[in-house]
């Protein structure tokens, strides 16, 4: 596992600055949640962390080495990326998709080794897909595809995993299982999430984005405050702790615009 840090990372397209001076750190072996409203820059930041986009300014480091210093081949062996809604060729099986996780370790025409096969078996097992491994990709549900993409990432035995909204197609059991799995791995994870309660429960560290900038970063209870949530998402919330587990709990009360309208009506009932 490794630490990922960015310094003053910026990225623009057509003169519009989509990421602006991002300084963040994803700690060794921990789960870092990227939060922020639609369009705040979470996916763009993940792409820069993965080296899929080149920043205008700033650097991404894995441990103490910059992305450029690591080089593509080394990065492909240590970093797994789980993007949103990835498509695969219709006629491949689930197992073949998961086997792609072994590609960085194999020569082009090499057969899978025993270790490759065992790693793929374990990844299928951990994502609850063993019984679907011979199915065609196109017959899977959205949630099964999402789990298969995670299985491909696990088959890579990565040191770091970047995940873009990995729970958006999953039913509640599989959401919890996926996040339980991420927290149990000895891997540094950076995960974009929309669900603030899941972020509070599973992330060690949060980075909150707004319009391409980091507006808060730290432990969940320092980031998920009513004031910050209201200012970034425009939603009034109650934040307390769930009595049985002590986990931070966010209850949504109303959008800020609706609250203002209700308050105005109370002030001026006529
Ligand atoms: N290649 C591009 N060209 C133009 N605009 C882009 C490009 N990529 C991203 N954007 C814009 O940058 C902003 C940030 O997008 P991004 O996908 O990173 O946000 P996000 O926080 O992941 O959003 P969501 O929660 O909706 O997935 C959006 O306004 C998006 O339209």
TrEMBL record:
It comes from the Bacteria. GO terms for molecular function: ATP binding; ATP hydrolysis activity. Coiled coil: none annotated. InterPro entries: AAA+_ATPase (IPR003593), ABC_transporter-like_ATP-bd (IPR003439), ABC_transporter-like_CS (IPR017871), P-loop_NTPase (IPR027417). Transmembrane segments: none annotated. Residues 4-236 form the ABC transporter domain. This is Sugar ABC transporter substrate-binding protein. Keywords: ATP-binding, Nucleotide-binding, Translocase, Transport.
